[in-house]
Write a structure and sequence with these properties.
This protein has 14 helices and 10 strands. It is of the alpha/beta class. Helix 1 runs parallel beside helix 3 (72-85), helix 4 (96-104) crosses helix 14 (271-282) and helix 11 (209-226) packs across helix 13. The longest helix has 18 residues, at 209-226. The radius of gyration is 19 Å and the shape is globular.
């Protein structure tokens, strides 16, 4: 059996293929971004999943694609922790951009972007992945992402910048204190996922003029920092992977049109396309 894993900062999608390349199992765990999760938590979190434990001795290969896995040290952490669970398997760890490129590939070169809890971009020609820009994380990067939009919302709430109706609704929904916010942002694990979770509030009101403008600003920032620097930006199709791109697709496309950029397709969850790519090209 083969496991294919697409891991973001918030959650991981797992698909187990049998020996005939047929889907045997689909399941989820939390996300395993080594930049935010303590490595000692990775193995126990996998072991909490009873479905994975039932097949752990039958897995011969694990393809793990994860956020935060763009550097060798983090890849080694993930490989070592997964190996503790799937002891008989070969573990292959690559960055999430590779999964996005595979999932978004439709036979022609394209700029591929991730817009989920975090954000990132690359250029994929079908064989080679070109990354012109670093991923700076949620503190000074991740433009347009769930954590960036969540950060804007929380900041504007406490600084009393939200319109009265949105301020009252946010206050009623969350009853958020500055003490709790700071604790979760600075002392709790996965602060980027904590901030991204506030998108539920924005998505439910995404047609509100204030939020349309706020999200548009974030999308413009994303294109400015993570797409336009590519020399292919105005010629290639720009494809998106991730829940934030999916939920705010109309705003995303409107901003791209303003900038004379061509957005192709938007995929909420890349795991299905990622599995198809492996069946067709890798396995």
């Amino acid at each position: 059996m083969v496991a294919i894993v697409d891991s973001g900062s918030t959650k991981s999608d797992w698909v187990i293929l049998d020996d005939f390349k047929k889907v045997f199992l689909k399941t989820e765990t939390i996300g395993f971004n080594p930049n935010f999760i303590n490595r000692e938590l990775i193995t126990p979190e996998i072991q909490k999943n009873s479905n994975l434990m039932l097949v752990k001795n039958s897995i011969t290969k694990v393809f793990f694609y994860g956020s935060g896995c763009g550097v060798e040290k983090n890849r080694e952490i993930i490989e070592a922790e997964i190996k503790k669970v799937f002891g008989k398997a070969e573990i292959i760890v690559k960055e999430d951009l590779m999964a996005a490129a595979y999932a978004a590939y439709k036979g022609k070169p394209a700029i591929v972007c991730i817009l989920g809890t975090g954000s990132n971009s690359c250029y994929f020609d079908g064989e080679n992945l070109k990354i012109e820009l670093p991923s700076l994380g949620f503190l000074i990067g991740d433009e347009g992402s769930g954590s960036a939009i969540g950060k804007q919302l929380v900041r504007r709430y406490f600084m009393k910048k939200l319109p009265a109706d949105l301020h009252s609704e946010f206050e009623a929904d969350y009853q958020l204190t500055i003490e709790d916010a700071l604790k979760n942002m600075y002392h709790a694990p996965r602060p980027n996922a904590y901030l991204a979770d506030f998108n539920k509030f924005v998505v439910e009101r995404k047609d509100h003029p204030y939020f349309m403008n706020m999200v548009s600003e974030e999308m413009k920032s994303f294109f400015e920092y993570q797409v336009i620097p590519y020399q292919e930006a105005h010629d290639a199709e720009i494809n998106f992977i991730g829940s934030i791109a999916y939920y705010y697709e109309n705003i995303l496309r409107a901003v791209a049109e303003e900038l004379n950029l061509n957005v192709g397709h938007v995929v909420q969850k890349p795991i299905e396309s990622l599995v198809d790519y492996h069946i067709k090209y890798i396995l």
